[in-house]
Design a protein that fits this description.
heterodimer; A: alpha+beta; SH3 type barrels; five-stranded antiparallel β-sheet; 2 helices; 5 strands; globular; B: alpha/beta; Rossmann fold; seven-stranded mixed β-sheet; two-stranded antiparallel sheet; 8% strand
C-alpha cells in the first residue's frame, strides 16, 4: 500500500520504503525514512495535496509524491 | 572571525541572525546566480564577527540553487565566503529532522556551534531534552539552548560562539555515513546514507530526548477551517482582498508625498541652479528619475510586510496548500499564487516575491506572466479612456463603464494563465515539479523582524533595480526634450507670444506640446504611425506609447502635453474635450469605441513598464528573459488590439 491510498485519519502507519525516483532523496531528507511512523492529518480540497504528521512536524505533499511512499 | 549561519527553514534562523547583527546587515548576490546573499557583523568582547546568513535548507546535498550555494561555501575551503565556524540553528521541538542537517555539517569538519532554538515551545509540545547528553553524544559539540523569540541569553550565545575551539573534533557517530568524495555517485547510495543517518540520530536521541507517546498536533482545528473546501477559499480570498485594499489605501499618502517632494525638489533646483542644459538634466531628468524609483517603495514595503506576516504566522504554507491543485495545470504551483495576485497592486514587488518558488521553471513562468495582471498604474489610463469612449449606459445596478473596467482586469488574469500554459510547453527542464513542504505550526509573528524585512526588500530594489530604472528614465527624458536639428526651436518660435499675461499659461502648454512633437520621441511617434494605424491610433498616441514606457500612467500626462492642456483631466475636462474632437485624415473621430477598446487592450497586455523589466533582469540575472517578456507581451498586445479594432470598427 502507498501513502496516497490512505483515507483513515486515526490510523498510524510505518514507512516501508521509498520508490526509486528523483524525489527519493528529497523525501528522505524531509524525514520519510523506512521505519518512520506517520499519520494522515488532512487533505486539501480536491484531495490533493495531503498533510501528514511525522511525529515532530507536519509535512504536505502532492498525491503523486505520496504514491512513492510504501507503507504498512 | 568569519561565521556562517545554517539551519532548516522555520528553525528561527533569521531571528537569530537579526538578534546577532541588528541593523548591521547587507544584502547582495552570489555572482552569477539568483540567490540573495545576506551578511552582517557584530562585536563581542573585542572580537569582530562577520556573520553570513546562508539560505535555509533541509540537507546539504544540493538539489536547488540555494542549496548549491550552501554546499559550495561550506565545502570549498578556498571559497571567498568559507567560514571559520558554522552556527547551526535547530528547532528543539523537532530535533530528529533538524539533526539530519546538523550532523551533515559536523561531518564536513568545520568547527560548529549548535543552537537549540525554540526552547520556549518544549513544554507545550511535551518535549524534554538533556542538552548536555546530546552534546556529548554528538562528540562534545558546543551546544547552546536558546529562545530567539525573546532573545534572552543573547550574550551567552555570543560568548559561546567565541569559545568554540577552532580545531575540529573527531566525530564518533556519524562520519562513516557520508563520504564527501562520492557525494554525486548516485541517488541510491545517497538515499541509503540518508536512512542510515536517520537511524543513528534516532539512536542518539533515544538517550537524551523524551517525546510524548502520541504527538498532539497543535491548532488542528485551525487547519480544518483554513483548508476547508468552502471556508478555506472564502477566508483566503477575503484576506487577499483585505491586503490589497490596505496596500492601496496605505500607500497612497506616502506615494503622493514622494511625488510632491521630488516635484518640489525639481522645481527648486530649476529655479536655483543657473540656466542651462546641465540644470535641465538634473531638475527634469535625474530628480524625476529618482522619484520614479522611490515611488515604488511604499508598495514594496507594504506587500513584503504582509508577506512576512503570512509566512511567520504559518498561514502562507496553507495558502500554498489549498491553491496548488488549482493552478498546477498551468505550469505553476501553490507558491505562485501570492506573486500572481500581488501583481494586481504592482508587478515589481510581485516579481520580487517569486523568490519563494524553489522550482526554477515554475518561478520563471510566474515571473513571465505576472506583469499581465492589471496593476494599479494601468488604472489612470483605463479611467481616461473609459471616460472618453465608453457610453454611459446602465442596466439596473450594472454600469457599462464599470463592466468594461472589470473585464479588463479579468482579461489580464486569463491572459496570465494561458501565457503560463504556453511557457509550460515551451520551457524544457530536467527538474521535476514537486511540492514537499513543511506546514509549520501557527505562531504569532516576531514583530521586531518585520521592519528589518521591509527595509531589506526596499534596499534590494533601490540598489539593484533602481540604477537601470534611473538610467532608462534619463535617456527617455533626453529623447523627449531634444530633437534633431533646429526644428524644435523654429517650431516654438512660430507660436505667437501672447501680450496679455492671462494667456501665458496657454502659451506654455503650447510650447511644451510643440517641443514634444519635434523631439526625437515625437519624430519616432510620427515615424511609427503607419505601424499603429491598423490599431486605430494616430501619432499622438504613438508618442504617448513611447513616453509611458517610464510608467504606464505617464500616458495621461503625455496626452495632456500633446493636446496642450493641464495635467489633471479629472478636474479639468479640456483634455477629454480636445481628445473627443480629434479627427483623422478622413474627418472621422480618432477616439471611438473601437480605437479606445483597442488602446485599453494594448495597455492591458503590453510590457509598458521599464521598472518591471529592470526587476525581471535583476531576478533572472540576464537580459534574455526581460527581452523575451517585452517581445511576447508587445506581440500579444498588438494582435489583440488589432483584432478588437477591426471587430468593433
Amino acid at each position: 500500500m502507498t501513502l496516497d491510498q490512505v483515507s483513515n485519519l486515526s490510523k498510524s502507519y510505518v514507512v516501508k520504503d521509498i520508490k526509486k525516483d528523483p524525489l527519493m532523496t528529497k523525501l528522505i531528507d524531509m524525514g520519510l525514512f523506512s521505519g518512520k511512523e506517520i499519520r494522515l492529518l488532512f487533505k486539501a480540497p480536491f484531495g490533493d495535496p495531503i498533510a501528514i504528521d511525522l511525529q515532530g512536524y507536519t509535512l504536505s505533499l502532492r498525491r503523486e509524491e505520496a504514491a512513492l511512499i510504501a507503507i504498512e | 572571525m568569519k561565521a556562517a549561519l545554517v539551519g532548516n527553514p522555520n528553525s528561527g534562523k533569521t531571528s537569530v541572525f537579526n538578534l546577532l547583527t541588528g541593523l548591521n546587515q547587507k544584502v547582495g548576490n552570489y555572482p552569477g546566480i539568483t540567490v540573495d546573499k545576506k551578511w552582517g557583523h557584530f562585536n563581542h568582547q573585542g572580537t569582530r564577527v562577520e556573520l553570513l546568513d546562508l539560505p535555509g535548507l533541509y540537507s546539504i546535498y544540493p538539489k536547488s540553487q540555494d542549496e548549491e550555494v550552501v554546499f559550495q561555501v561550506l565545502r570549498q575551503k578556498d571559497h571567498p565566503d568559507h567560514p571559520d565556524l558554522v552556527i547551526v540553528v535547530m528547532d528543539t521541538t523537532n530535533l530528529e529532522r533538524n539533526l539530519f542537517l546538523a550532523t551533515q555539517i559536523l561531518d564536513l569538519g568545520i568547527p560548529t556551534l549548535l543552537v537549540a532554538n525554540m526552547i520556549d515551545l518544549m513544554d507545550k509540545n511535551q518535549v524534554g531534552v538533556n542538552f548536555e547528553k546530546l552534546s556529548e553524544l554528538l562528540g562534545r559539540v558546543p551546544l547552546v539552548p536558546f529562545n530567539a523569540r525573546t532573545g534572552q541569553d543573547l550574550a551567552l550565545l555570543k560568548s559561546a560562539l567565541l569559545e568554540v575551539p577552532l580545531e575540529v573534533m573527531p566525530i564518533p557517530y556519524t562520519q562513516e555515513f557520508m563520504n564527501l568524495e562520492d557525494w554525486d555517485t548516485g541517488r541510491q547510495e545517497e538515499a541509503a546514507r540518508g536512512e542510515a543517518r536517520y537511524k543513528r540520530i534516532r539512536q542518539i536521541l533515544s538517550f537524551c530526548q523524551h517525546l510524548p507517546r502520541k504527538r498532539s498536533v497543535r491548532h488542528q482545528k485551525w487547519d480544518q477551517i483554513l483548508t476547508h473546501p468552502f471556508w478555506g477559499y472564502l477566508i483566503f480570498l477575503s484576506l487577499l482582498a483585505l491586503i490589497f485594499q490596505t496596500i492601496f489605501a496605505w500607500s497612497e499618502v506616502p506615494m503622493n508625498l514622494i511625488d510632491t517632494v521630488f516635484l518640489t525638489l525639481s522645481q527648486w533646483s530649476q529655479a536655483t541652479l543657473p540656466n542651462g542644459p546641465l540644470t535641465d538634466l538634473i531638475s527634469q531628468g535625474l530628480i524625476p528619475g529618482l522619484g520614479g524609483v522611490m515611488i515604488f517603495i511604499p508598495q514594496i514595503a507594504l506587500l513584503f510586510g504582509f508577506i512576512f506576516v503570512l509566512e511567520e504566522t504559518g498561514y502562507m504554507a496553507r495558502m500554498v496548500f489549498i491553491t496548488d491543485r488549482l493552478i498546477r495545470p498551468f505550469g505553476l504551483n501553490g507558491r505562485s499564487i501570492v506573486p500572481l495576485i500581488s501583481g494586481v497592486a504592482c508587478a515589481i514587488p510581485a516579481v520580487m516575491a517569486t523568490r519563494t518558488i524553489d522550482h526554477w521553471k515554475e518561478r520563471l513562468i510566474t515571473i513571465m506572466v505576472v506583469p499581465l495582471m492589471s496593476c494599479s498604474a494601468r488604472l489612470p489610463v483605463y479611467t481616461l479612456l473609459i471616460a472618453l469612449v465608453v457610453p454611459d449606459v446602465s442596466w439596473g445596478i450594472f454600469n457599462l463603464k464599470g463592466m468594461v473596467l472589470m473585464a479588463l482586469y479579468l482579461v489580464g488574469f486569463v491572459a496570465a494563465l494561458f501565457s503560463a500554459l504556453l511557457f509550460k510547453w515551451l520551457l524544457k527542464t530536467k527538474e521535476k515539479s514537486f511540492l514537499v513542504m513543511e506546514l509549520p505550526d501557527y505562531k504569532i509573528p516576531r514583530w521586531s523582524n518585520l521592519g528589518i524585512t521591509m527595509l531589506e526588500k526596499c534596499k534590494v530594489f533601490v540598489w539593484e533595480a533602481g540604477k537601470v530604472i534611473l538610467a532608462i528614465s534619463v535617456i527617455l527624458w533626453l529623447l523627449a526634450s531634444y530633437g534633431p536639428g533646429d526644428q524644435m526651436a523654429s517650431a516654438i518660435a512660430e507660436i505667437p507670444v501672447p501680450t496679455e499675461s492671462a494667456q501665458q499659461a496657454d502659451y506654455q502648454h503650447q510650447v511644451k506640446s510643440v517641443a514634444l512633437e519635434h523631439s526625437y520621441i515625437g519624430r519616432a511617434g510620427k515615424w511609427m504611425e503607419p505601424a499603429i494605424q491598423p490599431l486605430g491610433y494616430n501619432w499622438q498616441i504613438g508618442i504617448s506609447l513611447i513616453t509611458s514606457f517610464v510608467a504606464r500612467e505617464v500616458f495621461v500626462g503625455s496626452m495632456a502635453t500633446i493636446y496642450s492642456v493641464g495635467e489633471t483631466f479629472e478636474s479639468d475636462q479640456t483634455l477629454l474635450e480636445r481628445m473627443s474632437h480629434q479627427r483623422n485624415g478622413l474627418g472621422k473621430p480618432v477616439y471611438t469605441l473601437a480605437s479606445g477598446i483597442s488602446l485599453m487592450l494594448f495597455y492591458a497586455f503590453a510590457m509598458q513598464c521599464m521598472s518591471t523589466l529592470a526587476v525581471v533582469r535583476r531576478e533572472t540575472k540576464s537580459w534574455k528573459w526581460p527581452l523575451i517578456q517585452l517581445i511576447y507581451m508587445t506581440a500579444l498586445a498588438y494582435i489583440s488590439a488589432l483584432i478588437a479594432f477591426n471587430l468593433l470598427n
